[in-house]
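quick one before i forget lol
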Amino acid sequence: MTALDKPLRASARSARTSRRGTSVALAMLTPAALLMAVFLIVPIVLTFGLAFTNSRLISPVPAKFVLFDNFFRLFGSDTFWHSLLNTVIFAVIIVPLQSGVALGLALLVNGKFRGTNFFRTVYFLPVVTSMVVVSMLWMFLYQQDGLINVLLAKVGITGPDWLGDPRTALFAIIVMSTWQGVGFHMIVWLSGLQTIPAELYEAAAIDGANKWQQFANVTWPGLRSTRTLILITITISAFALFTQVNIMTQGGPLDATSTIVFQAVRTGFQQQQTGYASAISLVFFVLVLLVNLVQRYLTRDKEVSR
């Protein structure tokens, strides 16, 4: 074997190893790619196509292109505007409420005292419970003779029909959703709190900063990336509100709790108007995309200005 053969053989082995690694990577990627294509890419493409047709879920009549008729019908529907308003109200209220309560709980369980792990588990327990189960549980609590009204009656307050009154139905769902999801975001806040160096708090204490000043000047700036993540995740889940409405109110009373996602599902599966439901879904997609782009822009602008 000459001195020239050794580098050539080493190069050939390296090439075979690289090809083998590429083949293994592609083999491992293929199942995920197929699942993404079947359950994400194909439905998105079908939604864009069906939104411009009069397609029905089960119909002997072939679907026809109707161009923008579905969108004209949608924007002229009072139910759509009620659903959009309810979705926006839900998001505007629950984003600061849920994130604020979660931050407060994270600050409480971030301390070193006996029973911390117990409280973390208790606060996180609703997150791992099925939303269907949670919704059914709160339906019983919200009944006119349920636990909430019984407790109110003990202090001389007559509780309303929480889910049957248009004035309180959406508020009741907001309270339940906050309780169910606050544990997850508490954990996210907690992970952000634990990345802040303890030396910063020691330096602030030496400078005479009180607890509020430490929070304003050390904790809150240190949670910059965490609060961006929480803001985006809560907003997306808020706009996708469906399960609670479907289980507890079915969009009523008088469309007081109807949301865009609930309207799309009801239109597509109960009323079997897949073309119209696709138009609703397409509008919902554009709406969520715009909201998240605005959030990212505002968050980036604040970070740069600082």
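fyi Residues 302-306 have pLDDT under 50 and may be disordered.
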